[in-house]
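Internal ticket #5521
Category: modeling
Description: The requester needs a full-assembly model to guide mutagenesis choices. All entity lines are attached below as received. Residue total reported by intake: 478.
Assigned to: D.W.
Attached entities:
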Amino acid sequence: MFQKKKQVKIRLHYNEMSLKEGCSLTLKGDQAHYVRDVMRAKPSDAVMLFDGTYGDWTCIIEEISRSGVLLRVEALSGEYMKTPDLTLCISLIKPDTMRSVVRQATEMGVTVIQPVLTEYSSVRNINIQKCWKWAVEAAEQCCRQDVPVIKETMGFYDLRDLESQLILCDETGKGEAPARVLCGVENLGIVIGPEGGFSEKELLYSEAFAGKMSLGSRVLRVDTAVVAALSYVNEHCLS
Amino acid sequence: MFQKKKQVKIRLHYNEMSLKEGCSLTLKGDQAHYVRDVMRAKPSDAVMLFDGTYGDWTCIIEEISRSGVLLRVEALSGEYMKTPDLTLCISLIKPDTMRSVVRQATEMGVTVIQPVLTEYSSVRNINIQKCWKWAVEAAEQCCRQDVPVIKETMGFYDLRDLESQLILCDETGKGEAPARVLCGVENLGIVIGPEGGFSEKELLYSEAFAGKMSLGSRVLRVDTAVVAALSYVNEHCLS
């Protein structure tokens, strides 16, 4: 346990400039606060930075001050592992639940989060900047090397224009088993509705552009449905 | 939408007396408050009660007062679907996360929740009464007909005495793929560690009594790991 506490494990997303061996940079604001005050790092401690392009860079802290944390980039450690394309089309939901969904979708390997306004959506707006921040935090913690893109909200009926092959999670009992509907699908988009599900009109209309997957006989809350659906995707499409 | 709002959809767990057609009972306390003040039900509205033994009973509200809600049991609607045995052994974690885990595990079909004290558990106590309440709420909402049992906490090394076949979710990269490790397992117990995972000693010791499953290359938070693991179980053992 002692060794566990001593070892500084800091991993941050950094895209303000391109990184290369030997270059220096200064972390500011929230990132400096996190390194200095939350993790209480000291000069010569290591910090990992990932830029979403090359992978994880090992950096060494050279100086810590109130104005920022000066780092020197040491080396690229390990190759960049691009997360395979996977879109989550998620109904607008209350911010607390959206925060869980963004975090968990990031952990489960979603590369694009597409907010969707549906008939039963309980809210009509989303703060995309906040969603991006939650996604960055989750990527930092789950050791992903990229951060999902958060798109602008689109209406449910515009989903048909997406290039992804869409699979809609249907709680009315009419969806097919995951193994059946997901097998062999590429460039996948999973569509998850709000509490209350999709309207009859939405379900009918979606038959023209989306397959339907069942998540079982129990009624799942949105966050559970997201992780369950993405687990089936990982199992049947990406493994 | 109008019809959707008019229709009262109330489903409650009730085990204070055994139910049968034609009998009357009075909901008190929180349940009465929920029916009367939250759902604003009226006399002659329907309420579903499930007792964990026979299934869902349709009841009709006869009278609503400050002291309680009087119901008459009409009929048993649909056969009892027992949830297949499935144990979740979960490290003690902070109450907020435990609340999510209990809810999501209930949605995903766990029948026994076994709290476990591990070396890196961030808390050392659990309020079992609260966990039971969260499980009841989740069962009511997800349309399960039974409520998971919440056990007293046990130490990690006592897990070997459980009768379940244990599969431990291992984030060190040494676990096997879900399809491989779960195939054909019955009376399953999934073991999930705290943030920070299991200690080396725990991992070594567990080899004597548990298989190891990988949940992928990313580091999952506890709630995500629980739903992902249970999704794989649903896919490979229970479907």
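Resolution: model delivered.
Comment from assignee: The CA atoms of residues 43 and 61 of chain B lie 5 Å apart.
Ticket closed.
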